[in-house]
């Protein structure tokens, strides 16, 4: 009795095609795989084409198409309290606007109740305000945060050459300095190039001083501001809220410290009153910024304390001094 035929052909079985040529099973399997691979490549190429078309079309009218550096060099950001004296607020805005107009910069004045801070202190509003300003002005290169307790006192000094130029920054940055004075073991780097700095800030007697700082636009800036504004830090109940949160992340995250430059306090943040840096923090005539830290608290009056400085800054803005 002959053996039964199996339903499975032997591995090297050949099949006759229409022309009578025997095609081995292995060859047919290889051809089938190649055909499937070609189909997959065609589909993938088509999907890639559609993605590129959508990306090009989507970016043509979006902020993603903006080229950093093609817009105004600097955007000045000041967060305002809508409950503050209206006359004083107008003077603060005019102080920035006069300076910005003179140098081709822009200004941005959001109110501190515009952002959902989740019951955090209102001082946190500076962080989303900076992020907001970047969204509105994606082609600007630098964003200068100025607290409402500060005044620009030397309207003729452009921030770009006074602080931001790489050569100026390399000469003025303070290296190997404890981030939190006097004895923090974490110190500023000593080998940074000016064009690699993305965060420019000062330090008063107590620590980092956030009344005036500059952030360079870019992906790192977005990462930095988002990290700083993390809900974990806002809910941690730091004694000085956003200030202590920043000191924490600067000391614990090398990716932030590696982009930070400390500059002398009187370069962009000199104190008229308050805990000024003993070496370079006290305001003197000729400094770009005069700061009155805490004048909006402790039963003090910013408008009264600033009045003589408003008059001086206004006279200089009009070219009378």
TrEMBL record:
InterPro entries attached to this UniProt entry: Glyco_trans_34, Nucleotide-diphossugar_trans
The UniProt entry's GO biological process terms, in alphabetical order, are: protein N-linked glycosylation
The protein's GO terms of the molecular function aspect are: alpha-1,6-mannosyltransferase activity
Keyword list, A-Z: Glycosyltransferase, Membrane, Transferase, Transmembrane, Transmembrane helix
**Gene Ontology CC annotations of this record:** mannan polymerase complex
- What sections of the sequence does the record tag as coiled-coil? none
The transmembrane segments are 36-54
Q: Which Pfam families match?
A: Glyco_transf_34
Q: What family does the database annotate?
A: Belongs to the glycosyltransferase 34 family.
Which protein are we looking at? Glycosyltransferase family 34 protein
Q: Which organism is it from?
A: Sporormia fimetaria CBS 119925
């Amino acid at each position: 009795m002959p053996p039964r035929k199996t339903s499975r052909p032997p591995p090297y079985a050949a099949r006759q095609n229409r022309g009578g040529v025997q095609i081995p099973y292995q060859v047919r399997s290889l051809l089938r795989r190649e055909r499937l691979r070609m189909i997959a490549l065609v589909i993938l190429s088509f999907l890639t084409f559609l993605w590129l078309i959508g990306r090009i079309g989507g970016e043509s009218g979006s902020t993603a198409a903006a080229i950093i550096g093609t817009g105004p060099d600097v955007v000045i950001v000041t967060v305002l309290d809508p409950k503050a004296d209206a006359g004083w607020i107008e003077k603060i805005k005019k102080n920035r606007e006069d300076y910005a107009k003179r140098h081709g910069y822009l200004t941005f004045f959001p109110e501190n109740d515009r952002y959902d801070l989740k019951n955090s202190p209102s001082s946190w509003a500076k962080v989303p305000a900076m992020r907001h300003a970047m969204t509105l002005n994606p082609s600007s290169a630098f964003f200068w945060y100025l607290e409402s307790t500060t005044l620009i006192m030397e309207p003729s000094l452009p921030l770009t050459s006074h602080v931001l130029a790489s050569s100026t920054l390399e000469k003025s940055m303070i290296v190997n300095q404890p981030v939190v004075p006097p004895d923090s073991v974490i110190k500023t780097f000593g080998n940074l190039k000016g064009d690699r700095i993305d965060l420019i800030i000062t330090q008063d007697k107590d620590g980092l001083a956030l009344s005036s700082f500059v952030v360079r636009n870019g992906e790192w800036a977005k990462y930095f501001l988002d990290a700083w504004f993390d809900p974990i830090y806002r809910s941690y109940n730091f004694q000085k809220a956003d200030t202590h949160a920043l000191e924490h992340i600067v000391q614990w995250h090398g990716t932030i410290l590696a982009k930070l430059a400390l500059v002398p306090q009187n370069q962009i943040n000199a104190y008229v009153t308050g805990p000024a840096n003993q070496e370079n923090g006290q305001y003197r005539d000729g400094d770009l910024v005069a700061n009155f830290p805490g004048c909006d608290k402790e039963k003090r009056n910013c408008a009264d304390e600033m009045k003589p400085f408003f008059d001086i800054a206004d006279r200089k803005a009009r070219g009378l001094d």
